[in-house]
Amino acid sequence: MINYDLIYPGNPDQYLDDLCERVSQGMDEGLLPVEVFRDDAVFRAEMERIFTRNWIFVAHTSEIPEKGDYVLRRIGIDKVIVTRDDDDQINVLLNHCRHRGSELCHQDKGNTRHFKCPYHGWVYRNNGDWAGAPHLKDAYGGPLDKKEWSLLRAAKVEAIHGFVFASLSEDVPPLREYLGGAAWMFDALFGLHPDGMKVLKEPERFVVKADWKSGAENFSGDAYHVSTAHLSASLSEFIPGVNQVSSLASGYDFGNGNSFIGHALPELIAPMFDLWGYPPEYRDQFDLSQLDEVQLEMLKKVPPTIGTVFPNFSFLRFPQPDVPGAMPIPFTSIRMWQPVAPGVMELWNYELEYAFLPESFHDKAYMAGQFGFGSGGIFEQDDTAVWEGIAKVAASPWALSKGMRLHYQQKRGGPDPDWKGPGEFHPSIYGEYSQERFWRRWVKEMTEGKRASKHAEPCDDQGGCQ
């Protein structure tokens, strides 16, 4: 690795400023500096400038349905406790005691009214308020100020169709406003039944020696890789014709690094695969009255199948067999590209389905998702293997010494001028326009985040930090 302290002595931010400028200028040429995928300085800055300043998905409400329920999750590299407190409110709490900083919670999920630190026994309510400590009178002379010593709380917590997002910064717009056109897409994806969706099992988690941005960027608009990286799915007849997927793919670009791939499923598979191929007896129970004409036409002809909401939330819904040779059925997966270290991420795979559907369908949908995108899935093995190669070249002394840049220069046909929905609709996925906008959003956050961090305020007496 390059020692940037020698190149930029006494001014470590200068390297990041220069890199952001090179990424921005590179995107004008369709080129990307390779070191963005594995670099200590970049990683540290991303954790501070991106993950503390944006809305980050942390859980689904179906995982914490009862008062006292909690799950242990991540925002960047921080472990957080997502709780439903005794007042039925959802809280996102830093999993560290305010006394000496030890981790409070070591269980992935549970139900409790209090969290007790294993080091000195400080106790917190499930809303994060300080509740007590051992030997209170002898050690402290009496109770402490519960607000001053409560757990650090996410500044904002909101949900859309059951998906809980948190922001560590007050300086973010409301979630729907933040999502923009992506919220319109959420309505079409997750708002088709009043009972909503539910997580079928605990999220699967596994370590991948690849940068978190490789997954996020890929899901934002890369169908080009399918005919090569996933050819085995066609050769094995698991997904016949998979090599045609990119030719029948379109793009929905909502700006700000939020974009989705759509596939002409009736043409790719069979006419009955509008609405992703949900069986007629189930789709008849969908309530489509809240959707506009553009959404209805989209679901009929080119439904969204893959997408990314910046920075690290991705979605996947596609018809697949639950066993080889079976009729494809739709499954829904949420992918979280959790950063761990430069060039290393944890991939969190949540499988969800509409809650009203019978358990027999849930079981089949879960198996379909696992066959394709579980940790041993036929597509997952392909993707993670090639992404690991990107992290390796990003650390290559040879590549770095030559200033290696990656190719983003596919020809573009432009958006459909007759599109009536939000953002842009591109009839062809070729052109890498979504990936370019992902990287421009990355530059924006890395640049604006630097300015914001210089004016950050310390933790306040409510347990929050600016």
Structure notes:
By secondary structure, this protein is an alpha+beta fold. The chain folds into 2 domains: 107 residues, Rieske [2Fe-2S] iron-sulphur domain (Rieske Iron-sulfur Protein), CATH 2.102.10; 268 residues, Naphthalene 1,2-dioxygenase Alpha Subunit, Chain A, domain 1. It is 32% helix and 24% strand. The chain contains 16 helices and 21 strands. The strands form 5 sheets. Strands 12, 13, 14, 15, 16, 17, 18, 19 and 21 form a 9-stranded antiparallel sheet that branches. A 4-stranded antiparallel sheet has the order 5-4-3-6, with no helix packed on it. A hairpin with a 2-residue loop joins strand 3 and strand 4. Helix 7 crosses helix 16. It starts with a helix and ends in a 12-residue tail after the last helix. The C terminus is likely disordered. Keywords: 2Fe-2S, Aromatic hydrocarbons catabolism, Dioxygenase, Iron, Iron-sulfur, Metal-binding, NAD, Oxidoreductase. Belongs to the bacterial ring-hydroxylating dioxygenase alpha subunit family. It comes from Pseudomonas alkylphenolica. Pfam families: Rieske, Ring_hydroxyl_A. This is Rieske (2Fe-2S) protein.
